[in-house]
Structure formats: C-alpha cells, structure tokens
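FORM 12-B: Structure-to-Sequence Request
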C-alpha cells in the first residue's frame, strides 16, 4: 500500500529525472550548435520546412529515449534508450545541415554512422528486453504453480498436469495411479513446537518425497500436511512399491530442526488407480482419500489400496478431498 510520504518521494524522484533529461537535452543541443557555429557558416538560404520536420523527428527520438530510459532503470538494461539517444544526435546533425554550410555532406555521413550504431544498440536492447520479460513471465508462471512454503506443485498445477498425464497414459495404453499422503500426528508437532518447526518439517519432507519418487512422478502439496503424487503409466502394483518405499524412508529419517531438535515422523498413504470414466479429482482422488483414512484407522505408517467397489458407491459428503475442492 502506498503511503502519502511514499507517493511524495516518488513524485520527487520523477521531477528530478525530468529535470535531468531536460538538462541533458539542452547540453546536447548547445554542444552541437556551438561546435557547428565555430567551424561552419550559416547557409544563405535556409529551408525552414526541412529544419522543422527533422527537428520534430529529433525531438520525438529524444522523447522515446526518455520513455525507454525510465523503464530501463528498473530492468538495468539501457541499450535501447542509448540507441534512441544516438538517433537523436544523428537527426539533430541532419537538422543542422540545413542551417549550416557543411561541405561534402559531412553531417549526413556522421549521422549515418550514428544511426547505424544507434539501431544496432537498440536492437540489442530489444532482444535483452524480450529475454527479461520472458524470464519474468516464466517466473510468474512458476510462482503461480508452486507452493510458496515447500516449492512443490500446488493445486493449480495439479489441475493443469493431471489431465495431460492421464491423456499420456491412456494413449500409451497404460495405467494411471494416484497417491495421497498425510503426516501422522502432525498437529501435536505444531502445538508443542510451533508452526515454524512444523514448516521446516514440511520443507524437509517435501525434499524427501521428491528424492524418493520416480522421475515421471510429480509431487503436489494438497494442503496442510497432505500431499498428492501423480503416477503416470503406473499400475497399482508398482505404485504400491513406491508408496512403501516412501513411507519407509520417512520412518527411517530423523528430521533435524534448529540444530538441536530432532524429530521422528511417520506418514500414511492411500492409493487408487484411475478407472475409465472417472474424474481424477472427484472420483480417483476421493477413493485414494478413503484408502488414506483406512490406513490411519489401521494404525498409521502404512499403505492402503483403494477398493474398486468404492468407485460405484461414491458419497461426496464423506470425503475431505471433495469437500476441499468445493
């Protein structure tokens, strides 16, 4: 939120910048005029129409220099405005060629060289500007698709990726499985040690999930201490192996927090394989969530595979996943 003081300070900076640009304009014009009047004489007949036209083009070029330079300060890339500044000097020389008697079209040759250098510099600046905005867009897209705390994909990314991964699996004539995981007894950790410790645990667990899932799998933070893993081209047998590997690695790991605190955790997992005609979120993931609750009820720190019969007996009011989606 902008404060009155911040707005006043920004207005002051803008005023100083405009004064600086005006001073530079006056210095350049006076400098060129002083050099020309010292070495050359006025023409006997001055074509004021051409002077006006090229003078206007020079002023327009300087205006573009100001506009681009104001933006370039933020980008820390000033090649494009420097190109416009060189173009301004070149057009100013052309304008003066109609006022002073300069032999052998010297001003046109010098202006031509300046314009070539100016165009080249502006072209380079344009490329850099395009690269900057491309990186900016990629960064914004990445931020919109990742969880700020863990760096994992978020639900928006899940909505984008799940359909594509499912399409790839079905076109390959293969299976597609979904795993949902939840940290066992995570609330007492937050209550006893604070949310800062809980956040560090979530971050460490996220790195572990990325390290011990396969390259083709994608890990998502679903919310709180829940995570979802999409497993394309994977049937329940292989998905079950991966799930057991993950929960065993979590159980073996000692989570170190603040150098002096060591915690042991376990997680539970529910697995479901996509069935033709199902919605991944509203059907497959719901069955996986039911399997997760069975894993919790069976003593935690284990994996339960969803029952195929659940796909024909959905009760949307019994699933926390579906309630969250709503």
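FORM 12-B RESPONSE
SEQUENCE OUT:
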């Amino acid at each position: 939120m902008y404060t009155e003081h911040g707005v006043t300070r920004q207005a002051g900076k803008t005023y100083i910048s405009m004064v600086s640009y005006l001073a530079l304009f006056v210095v350049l014009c006076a400098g060129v005029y002083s050099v020309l009047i010292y070495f050359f004489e006025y023409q006997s007949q001055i074509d004021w129409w051409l002077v006006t036209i090229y003078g206007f083009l020079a002023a327009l070029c300087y205006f573009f220099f100001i506009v681009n330079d104001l933006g370039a300060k933020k980008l820390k890339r000033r090649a494009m405005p420097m190109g416009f500044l060189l173009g301004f000097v070149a057009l100013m020389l052309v304008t003066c060629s109609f006022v002073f008697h300069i032999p052998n079209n010297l001003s046109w040759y010098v202006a031509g060289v300046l314009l070539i250098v100016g165009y080249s510099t502006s072209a380079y600046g344009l490329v850099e500007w395009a690269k900057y905005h491309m990186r900016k867009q990629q960064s914004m897209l990445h931020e919109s698709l990742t969880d700020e705390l863990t760096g994992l994909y978020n639900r928006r990314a899940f909505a984008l990726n799940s359909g594509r991964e499912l399409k790839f699996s079905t076109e390959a004539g293969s299976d597609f499985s979904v795993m949902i995981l939840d940290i066992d007894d995570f609330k007492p950790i937050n209550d006893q040690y604070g949310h800062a410790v809980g956040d560090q645990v979530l971050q460490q667990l996220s790195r572990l999930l990325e390290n011990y899932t396969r390259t083709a799998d994608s890990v998502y933070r679903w919310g709180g201490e829940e995570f979802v893993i999409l497993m394309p081209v994977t049937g329940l047998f292989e998905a079950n192996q991966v799930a057991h590997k993950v929960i065993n690695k979590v159980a073996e790991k000692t989570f170190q927090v603040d150098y002096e605190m060591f915690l042991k955790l376990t997680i539970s997992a529910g697995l479901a394989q996509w069935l033709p005609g199902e919605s991944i979120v509203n059907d497959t993931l719901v069955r996986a969530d039911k399997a997760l609750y069975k894993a919790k009820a069976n003593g935690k720190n284990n994996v339960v595979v969803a029952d195929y019969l659940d796909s024909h007996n959905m009760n949307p009011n019994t699933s926390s996943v579906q309630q969250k989606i709503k």
